[in-house]
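> forwarded from #structure-qc
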């Protein structure tokens, strides 16, 4: 069993990256959340690992934090949720966001993740609400704070409608958020921030 890897970030694909360590390249599957926070190519990176060995799959899954890996392992321990669905959840939500939806008993929000229906989302809440009932989410977490602002929420929902993942959309709004901006300008600036060549 591997605990973590420290090596050079060499390549990235849609859902995985290559980390070179002692002249061996390891193909590691990562969530969108991890992908967005990776350093530049050819930089050193540390990933906490989870190895999956099944008849039809031998794979390494990587996470920037031990907490994200813990959430992944918790999810695959729930009946009906495999590694692919668990990574979908971690790509759609940060760990704090996912716990927030569990504590708020919000299966519709959780069901936004790819491969997760309302029935599975409700099972996640049922099995995990007691586990996380004593978790105190950071009040200073800007992404969580923006959830309570209706303008930021509307901008985030607009970006979701354009195909962005929730974690990505929240981060885009966070990067440019100002109470002085109208909704249309907030969305436009978020899109320009995602692709500086657009909107100029």
């Amino acid at each position: 069993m591997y605990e973590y890897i420290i090596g050079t970030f060499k390549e990235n694909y849609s859902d995985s990256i290559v980390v070179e360590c002692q002249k061996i390249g390891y193909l590691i599957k990562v969530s969108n959340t991890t992908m967005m926070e990776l350093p530049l190519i050819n930089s050193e990176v540390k990933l906490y690992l989870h190895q999956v060995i099944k008849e039809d799959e031998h794979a390494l899954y990587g996470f920037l934090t031990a907490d994200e890996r813990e959430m992944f392992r918790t999810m695959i321990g729930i009946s009906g949720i495999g590694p692919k669905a668990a990574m979908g959840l971690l790509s759609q939500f940060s760990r704090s966001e996912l716990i927030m939806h569990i504590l708020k008993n919000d299966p519709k929000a959780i069901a936004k993740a790819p491969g997760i229906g309302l029935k599975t989302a409700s099972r996640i809440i049922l099995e995990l609400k007691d586990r996380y009932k004593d978790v105190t989410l950071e009040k200073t977490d800007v992404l969580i704070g923006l959830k309570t602002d209706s303008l930021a929420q509307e901008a985030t929902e607009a970006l979701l409608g354009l195909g962005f993942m929730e974690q990505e959309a929240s981060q885009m709004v966070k990067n440019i958020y100002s109470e002085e901006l109208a909704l249309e300008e907030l969305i436009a600036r978020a899109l320009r921030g995602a692709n500086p060549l657009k909107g100029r």
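QC bot note: The two ends are 50 Å apart (CA to CA). Strands lie at 4-12, 16-21, 24-29, 44-54, 57-63.
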